[in-house]
Design brief:
CATH architecture of the largest domain: Orthogonal Bundle
Structural class: alpha+beta
Strand content: 15-25%
Strand order of the largest sheet: 1-6-7-5
CATH class of the largest domain: Mainly Alpha
Radius of gyration: 20 Å
Number of strands: 10
Distance between the termini: 32 Å
Number of domains: 2
Length: 273
């Protein structure tokens, strides 16, 4: 699944082509994605896209009449193409623009979503209970410590909970915990305020670096320009179980937490802290 950096890279890629541009037509080839695409999505037609925001892994296309809420699901990707470009298999939605381009949603597994709201999108059921964005000033070490001081859960799955902080998926949780030298099974309430700040700083660093470098190369992920991301080449622990730690050369180990793979260094991330 595309994680927060991949979605942010998509937002950055499509914004210059969509922002301020009138939507001429919305073409739906397959209405049934994760949820049925509502007929209200055609309210975009004739309206300029005022701005494009990202909330967690959702893209919000704002217009005067409402907001389209777009999610890439497991395998979705967006492309900017010339009008008239023939559709291929799994090209489910085109948003045709007055500038001679179109935004195309390609989603082989159809786990993505295209929804509509005429209200404040932050009140939408998919978004209303979400925690702060990790790259904003609302996500601080003190916030993390206050939220977790009575929680005995393991830190890694807790960090991946969107109600705590949005968009810290499996790849980046692995990386941030390694960078802050925190074992993924540590109880949340065992972390000191200093450790919480180190973890917040690591989350911000690893996400910002991934966005800067174009997103992590995943099997199904391509940027809007069709080129893969390159951050996967710099991952320190994710996908490297059994390989030497980049800090101490001890073999990295792997465990399962919340049905997700967690790779860590038992020397640099001791469990007994």
């Amino acid at each position: 699944m595309p994680e927060l950096p991949e979605v942010e890279v998509s937002r950055l890629g499509i914004t210059p082509w969509l922002e301020g541009v009138v939507v001429e037509r919305v073409v739906i080839r397959h209405r049934q994605l994760r949820w049925p695409i509502p007929a209200e999505i055609h309210l975009l037609e004739g309206q300029p896209i005022q701005r494009i925001e990202r909330r967690a892994k959702y893209l919000l296309l704002h217009s005067t009449l409402g907001t389209a809420i777009l999610h890439l699901g497991m395998s979705g990707r967006l492309r900017i193409l010339p009008l008239g470009t023939p559709a291929e298999k799994h090209d489910h939605v085109d948003i045709e623009l007055a500038n001679g381009k179109l935004l195309r949603l390609h989603d082989p597994r159809r786990f993505g979503a295209l929804l509509w709201t005429s209200d404040d999108p932050s009140l939408h059921p998919l978004l209303e209970k979400m925690g702060p964005e990790p790259l904003t000033d609302l996500f601080t070490g003190n916030y993390l410590w206050q939220r977790g001081r009575k929680t005995q859960s393991a830190i890694k799955p807790w960090l991946m909970n969107n109600q705590i902080v949005v968009g810290v998926g499996n790849i980046y949780a692995n990386e941030a915990l390694f960078m802050s030298r925190i074992h993924p099974k540590r109880a949340v309430n065992s972390l000191s305020q200093v450790e919480c700040q180190l973890l917040v700083d690591a989350v911000k660093t690893v996400l910002a670096r991934a966005i800067q470098q174009g997103g992590t190369t995943l099997r199904d992920f391509m940027r809007t320009d069709g080129k893969p991301g390159y951050f996967v080449q710099e991952l320190l622990v994710y996908g490297r179980a059994g390989q030497p730690c980049t800090l101490c050369a001890h073999p990295l180990e792997e465990l399962r937490l919340g049905q997700r793979s967690s790779v860590y260094c038992p020397i640099c991330q001791p469990f007994g802290n």
